[in-house]
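Final report, Chapter 2: Outcomes

The project's central promise was a pipeline that accepts a single protein chain and returns its three-dimensional structure in a standardized token representation, suitable for archiving and comparison. That pipeline is now operational. To close this chapter, we reproduce one record exactly as it appears in the project archive, with the input sequence first and the structure output second.
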Amino acid sequence: MLALQGAFARHAELLAELGHEVCLVRDVKHLAGLDGLVLPGGESTVQLELCARLGLDAPLCELVRSGKPILATCAGSILIARHVERPAQRSFGLLDVDIARNAYGRQLDSFESRSDEPPRLGSSSSAAEAPLPLVFIRAPRFTRVGAAVAVLARHRGEPVLVREGNITAATFHPELSGDTRVHRAVFG
């Protein structure tokens, strides 16, 4: 769990409830031996600055490229996008998507909704047959999804949950919904 800034605490609680041992990553040495990583919501520019200052950029990219499961939510999706717009900023460029920051508006414009249909998470449980609850807080929006990126869930026709290889990215906050399907699909 990248724990430099932002909404990492609820992700950590949820993963612990699912039986995972959680390591709060605040230093390069914390990346050793991880089985996966969550890049949480928060403020993407602050997270990028802290990653650079702490020397985490290259080791984080190496962990993602190692094939271990990665879940990026909200600002975490901005961190790993190929291209960031509105405004443009640096990113790790590991997921073939373009993303617009704060695309749904300001904090006051935050909202809850449901996915258009049940998500394509690969689960056969009856809970998987229900649309996902979605919590959008100053949420980004995928403006382009690469050919190798699978769209797992949509909201009003737009992709909100995608996967490319070992990376799953959400423009919403699955950790705040009370629904564990996204975390279970990524980390088991």
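Archive annotation: The two ends are 15 Å apart (CA to CA).
This record, like all others produced under the grant, will remain available to the consortium after the project formally closes.
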